[in-house]
Each structure stands twice: as structure tokens, then as C-alpha cells.
Amino acid sequence: MERLIDALADNADFFVEQVQITAIVFDNTNDVTVWATTFFDNTLYFFHLGLQFQSLDLLLRLAGDRTEALQEQVAEALATVTEWPCLLEYNTSEAPPVPLPGVALKLACTYPADGPDDEEEEISFVQLPSDVDESEEFEEEEEDFDDERPHNIFYLEGIFLRLEP
């Protein structure tokens, strides 16, 4: 399984279909992260989707015959959670992934807090030992570049349903 962010040609908003929820993580009292998979171009991709609870409720209402059970699980978890984050998993035979049939999600990329669009620039210096060779310096620069790429966490821009004629 591959990261969805690695399959994108650019950072524009985009749509995914054939989505299956594999976990729901309650980050705090306001936000939730959905772990999901999507299948396209003959490849299975995973991604994380940052949501507010209202959007989670809407997604769960689109889960077909599992809607009621999922809403009860979420309500029970929220009523009994004592530590954040709280995890509900859907990746076993007893609790299989939750398909969202006929649903297309419009997603937007997210960036690290200190990514390329951040207005404040912080400059720091680190003294390197004199025995550091240039290849080690190059590896450090490459890691810095990876930190500026979008995360595999997305924001939900919209939920769309496929209408059959």
C-alpha cells in the first residue's frame, strides 16, 4: 500500500472515490482524523483526513447498512473517552473497513506548520563537528526538503454523491 500524497502530480485539490475508512481517531474534543484507503490506477493508497465532528457524522451517514452501528460506536467512544487521542479501528474480520459507496471526496493537501507557505521564517544555526564529511551534510539537506513536502494528511473540501440515471 502506498501513500496517496506520493501519487499526486501537484498540490491542487482533487477527488478520490472507492474510499474505505480503516480507523477513526478522536484527536481532541473538536477534531477527528479518519484513516482511509482509496483504490485507483490499480493501486491501493492510504491517507489521513482531518475533519471536524460534523463532517465525520455526515461521512458515517453515507456508510450504507453500517451507518447506525458506526454512529453508536462513535457516540459510545465519545461518552467514555478519558484520554486523547482515542482510536476506533476497522481493519479486522469482526470490524472490517467501512466502504463509502458512491461517494467522492474532494481533498486538499496540508503542509507542515513550518512549510513553504509559512510567513514567519526562523533561522537557526547548528555547529557541526569538524569531522563531518560533505555526504552527511547532503543527507541533512535532503531531509529538510522532505519536511517541506505536503503531509499524507488532507483536509476535506467537499463530499459528493454519484447519481445513477
Question: What features would you describe in this structure?
Answer:
- The protein is an alpha+beta fold.
- It has one domain.
- The chain is built from 3 helices and 9 strands, in the order E-E-E-E-E-H-H-E-E-E-H-E.
- The chain has helices at 53-61, 67-80, 134-147, and strands at residues 2-3, 14-16, 19-26, 31-40, 43-52, 86-89, 98-99, 103-109, 153-161.
- Strands 1, 2, 3, 4, 5, 6, 7, 8 and 9 form a 9-stranded mixed beta sheet that branches.
- The longest helix has 14 residues, at 67-80.
- The two termini are 34 Å apart.
- Mean pLDDT is 80; it is low at 115-132 and 134-146.
Report a brief summary of the structure:
With 165 residues, the protein is α+β, with helices and mostly antiparallel strands.
Low-confidence stretches: 115-132, 134-146
Radius of gyration from the alpha-carbon trace, in angstroms: 19 Å
Q: Percent of residues in helical segments?
A: 10-25%
How many domains make up the coordinates? 1
Beta-strand segment tally: 9
Order of helices and strands: EEEEEHHEEEHE
- Report the structural category: alpha+beta
Largest β-sheet summary: 9 strands, mixed
- Label the overall shape: globular
Integer average pLDDT:
80
Strand content: 25-35%
Helical stretch tally: 3
**Cα separation of the termini:** 34 Å
Give a quick set of tags describing it.
165 residues; alpha+beta; nine-stranded mixed β-sheet; 3 helices; 9 strands; 22% helix; 33% strand
